[in-house]
Amino acid sequence: MKVRKAIIPAAGLGTRFLPATKALPKEMLPIVDKPVIQFIVEEAKASGIEDILIVTGKNKRAIENHFDSNPELEQDLEKTGKSGLLKLTQEITDLGVNVYYTRQPYPAGLGDAVYRARSFVAGESFVIMLGDDFDLMKDKVPLTKQLINDYDKTHASTIAVMKVPHKEVSKYGVIAPDGNIAPDLYNVKKFVEKPAVDKAPSDLAIIGRYLLTPEIFDILEHQKPGRGGEFQLTDAIDTMNKTQRVFAHVFKGECFDVGNKEGYLETSIQYGLIHPETRDALRKYIKELGKKL
Ligand code: G1P
């Protein structure tokens, strides 16, 4: 059966971006002119996903408004002849994917947020896409689609991982690889959530794209709180790996982490360098700035 459902957890408080995120959901922070969550939804669509459930929380209304129509704005753009902007605005509403919402009432970890999608998923294999991890899709095949392509061959859960600098492993879920079955596809001995740098089993970090079989919900149902007292998705995946294969797909493209200030700036610059309205001026500016630094 085709993988057609995606969960986007978006309930986090965004404390790393205060004060910007005091009233604004962090998922609505723009990369040049597009909110982060729109990139994620576009990646889902480009990967063949048909139904998306965004798990939100308090203070996240702006996300729903973003994917809804805005008749007043649209009328104004029409009246003033700004047809390009009108098209751009309407395309967000007419994306051709169904977007649903549910709320996580208390922050209780990624495992808890995902568990709230159980009835939405309804027994199908599905993907999870985290908003902090960002595939600019400069690679022709988006990361989510790469996982779906693996699944079409193996019918097994597959988690995207990427090599990160060793000193950064403690920010991520990390895998202990156990030999590969294809150039980019590894068996996994163990999944560990945010290990200490000296205890990490490898430098292969989970980068926020997961393709999971629905059995994960039976495990999440009985999951005990893990690191930080929260229900960790990584722990549930490690448990599932004991009864059914969970592969790791090593992503070789460029994936940015917009969940921290440095990564957010880097992503904005990278996107600015490919955005038709900014690329030339930005390239010139960076070259001039480089001489002064
Ligand atoms: C979450 C996951 C972690 C993963 C990371 C990727 O952590 O728990 O395993 O490596 O996303 O961004 P968070 O960044 O939400 O703390």
Give your account of this protein's structure.
There is one protein chain. The chain has 293 residues and is α/β, with parallel strands linked by helices. It folds into two domains: 5-259, Spore Coat Polysaccharide Biosynthesis Protein SpsA, Chain A (Alpha-Beta Complex), CATH 3.90.550; 260-293, no CATH class. It is built from eleven helices and 13 strands. Strand 2 and strand 3 (34-35) form a beta hairpin. The mean pLDDT is 94.
Give the structure's gist in a few sentences.
By secondary structure, this protein is α/β, with parallel strands linked by helices. It has helices at residues 36-46, 61-67, 71-79, 83-93, 110-115, 118-121, 143-154, 216-221, 233-240, 261-272, 279-292; strands at 5-9, 30-31, 34-35, 51-56, 98-103, 126-129, 133-135, 157-163, 173-182, 185-193, 204-212, 246-250, 255-257. The mean pLDDT is 94.
